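User: tokens in, sequence out, please.
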């Protein structure tokens, strides 16, 4: 957890989503983006989830990230109760391995969008990077760190161009 006032709210539907959402939190930490993490469910604690979304902007949060599995309505519920951009991460916690969560998250009816990432840990990582890109439009320090992250990723890939046998 960051000491500065959080800019990103990371919400997951259950404590059981923790491992999948860890790459998201890790990237936010690496990029030194102030954030907070909450476990809120759209069906088990619907009022708390609604309150969180309704108060998010006034608290200073700029982006919400929501990870949930099964019939994943968490991201949509947050988006319905906030004007902040909401990034959804479908979690592969069900017998359908996240395909249900992907469709539930991405298929928001017109009017209330959720920026939906890939299923699972890769999507969680991308959610943090996408949040960084949104914040980088106005935050110079985050822009600088995100640019460096990209530069280093490219450099690492270039170092491996001829190392296919590793
Ligand atoms: C969803 O149901 C959560 O996001 C989680 O992925 C899934 C299972 O939750 P638990 O039964 O493990 O708490 O709401």
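Assistant: Sequence out:
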């Amino acid at each position: 957890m960051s000491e500065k006032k959080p800019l990103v709210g990371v919400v997951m539907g259950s404590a059981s989503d923790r491992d999948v959402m860890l790459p998201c939190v890790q990237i936010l930490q690496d990029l030194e983006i102030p954030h907070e993490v909450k476990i809120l469910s759209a069906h088990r604690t619907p009022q708390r989830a609604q309150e969180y979304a309704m108060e998010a902007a006034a608290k200073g949060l700029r982006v919400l990230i929501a990870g949930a599995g099964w019939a994943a309505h968490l991201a949509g519920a947050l988006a319905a109760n906030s004007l902040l951009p909401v990034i959804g991460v479908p979690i592969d916690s069900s017998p359908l391995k996240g395909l249900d969560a992907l469709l539930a998250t991405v298929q928001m009816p017109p009017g209330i969008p959720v920026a939906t990432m890939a299923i699972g840990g890769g999507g969680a990582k991308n959610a943090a990077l996408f949040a960084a890109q949104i914040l980088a439009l106005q935050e110079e320090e985050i822009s600088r760190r995100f640019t460096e992250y990209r530069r280093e990723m490219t450099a690492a890939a270039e170092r491996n161009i001829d190392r296919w046998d590793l």
